[in-house]
Amino acid sequence: MNKELLYNKYIDILKEELIPAMGCTEPIAIAYCASIARKHLSKMPTKVSVFASGNIIKNVKSVIVPNTNGLKGIPAAAFAGIIAGDSNRMLEVISSVNDTQKKEMADALSTIPCDVKLLEDGSIFDILIELQAGDDYSIARITDYHTNVVYIEKNGTVILDKRSEIHSPASPITDSAVIPDACSVSPNNSDDNNELSDRSILNVEAIIDFADNVELTRVEAILSQQIEYNMAIAEAGLNGNFGANVGRVLLNSYGNDIKIRARAKAAAASDARMNGCELPVVINSGSGNQGITASVPVIEYARELEVSEEKLYRALLVSNLITIHLKTGIGRLSAYCGAVSAGCGAGAGIAYLHGGDFKTIAHTVVNSLAIVSGIVCDGAKASCAGKIAAAVDAGILGYHMYENGNQFRGGDGIVTKGVENTIRNIGHLGREGMKETDKEILKIMLEQ
Fold first, then answer.
1. pLDDT value at position 191?
2. Whose CA is closest to 28, among 65, 56, 83?
3. Which of 15, 140, 316, 353 is 20 to 30 A distant from 122 in Cα terms?
4. d(CA 80, CA 67)
5. Nearest to 424 by CA among 437, 414, 411
6. Is residue 285 left, alpha or beta, with left meaning phi > 0 and alpha meaning psi from -120 to 50?
7. Mean pLDDT over all residues of the chain?
8. Exposed (0-12), middle (13-18) or buried (19+): which is 105, by Cβ within 10 Å?
9. What is the pLDDT confidence band of residue 179, given thresholds at 50, 70 and 90?
């Protein structure tokens, strides 16, 4: 593939992944799905049914949905989308909500039945919502990633069907014991969707070449928005009272050194986001926490080192694309904590800011992965901020290890000689090796 074509594809990947979202992206995906179903129903529903895969349930259970006066959970997310959602805004679907609508959400939660059921036969990422109003009903389904609407139906008429298996129109879900075949989707835990650019072209050496040489006017708008949004929520997190206040604890306990400050600001941004802050973030690989982790530490280091804006942008390209590269093998959702991938990406971006070449960055990534690949994802919640702090610390340590002549070597656990081989190992671990772990985590969470 010639270099210009490769660069175009990398830019397409960035445009697909670095998009704004308000709130934790899984509840927001539920709100988005519900807003689509509501758009196709002529009146307010009298019953709501939400079918969601285990990973969706895990990531919605404990986070506050923004613009809802502090409401949590799947029903809250669904009613936010039904009452105040603007489906045209996708992951900013509930960015504009007035006080009357907030009251209507609370009233709906107490007066309109909302059934939530585990969807076991579909994708790792799967949301299906049915709304009923008398004899009328509508269905919407999102599969594989947060904005991938694959099915819409109204009163037996199929409006959209992009599923891999085509069947006859469905009957209303609430009239049957199980989800009908008409809504079945082939099980899938990959991002290999025709509507997303091919991620197999990503590799660390090519990412660094791209970051070194791409014309920045082609990516400036994407990166400047990431800087503006993600640093704003980081400051809000430090100045407010959100979650466990991990960022402030770090600064109060360990001081204001750049290595602490980079961790603290990323953690503070996550604490704010997980706990209802009504500011958007630019996400990465479908996750706001990953978007924060891949960007905020790099931006903070760039300011400390007083590098040029150009150097910062190029470092962010390294961090974001390495994060996406790592996440591609793992999949959108997994028991493998996504902050780990982004923390390693941030370490790579910080290494780049210091003038690190391919060899330095490759060793930074491998060292980082060797340190924190045991962190599990037990859903979106306040403790994500602590995990982000640990992942960023591993990224920074991974860089300084190599700079001091130390490294983890092939044969050390899951580390294999060569950065791409180690990344493949991590993908297999996160995608296949942790499937049973994921089930046990969900079981523990649902029993609480």
1. 45
2. 65
3. 15
4. 8
5. 414
6. left
7. 90
8. buried
9. very low
Residue indicated by tokens 């994500």: 384
Is domain 199-447 given the CATH code 2.60.40 in the classification? no
Helices 419-428, 309-330: inter-axial angle, 10-degree rounding = 50
Q: ∠296-297-303 over CA atoms, to 5°?
A: 90
- Partner residues linked to 137 by β-bridges: 132
CA distance 153 to 421: 44
pLDDT band per the 50, 70, 90 thresholds, residue 178: very low
Q: What is the CA radius of gyration of the chain?
A: 21
> How far, in Å, CA of 278 to CA of 233, rounded?
9
Please list the residue range(s) of the chain that carry CATH number 3.30.1330.90.
23-183
Task: List all residues 6 or more positions away from 373 whose beta carbon is below 8 Å from its beta carbon.
Answer: 336, 340, 414, 426, 429
What span, in angstroms and rounded, lies between the C-alpha atoms of 273 and 269? 6
Report the alpha-carbon distance of residue 415 to residue 227 in Å, rounded: 33
Token code pair at residue 286 = 């479908």
Beta-ladder partners of 275: 64
Residues 315-354, buried b or exposed e (16+ Cβ, 10 A)? Answer: bbbbbbbbbbbbbbbbbbbbbbbbbbbbbbbbbbbbbbbe
Where does the chain hold its CATH 1.10.4100 domain(s)?
199-447
At 140 the pLDDT is 97
Q: Does pTM surpass 0.85? A: yes
Query: Strand locations in 65-135, DSSP E?
Result: 114-118, 126-133
| pLDDT digits 0-9 by tens, 32-54 | 999 999 999 989 999 999 999 98
* 152 bridge partner residues: 140, 160
Written as six digits, the tokens of 297 are 């530490």
Quote the CATH superfamily of domain 23-183: D-3-phosphoglycerate dehydrogenase; domain 3 (3.30.1330.90)
- Could you identify the residue written with the tokens 């780049």? 352
Distance CA 1, CA 5 (A): 7
Structure tokens at 275: 């706990």
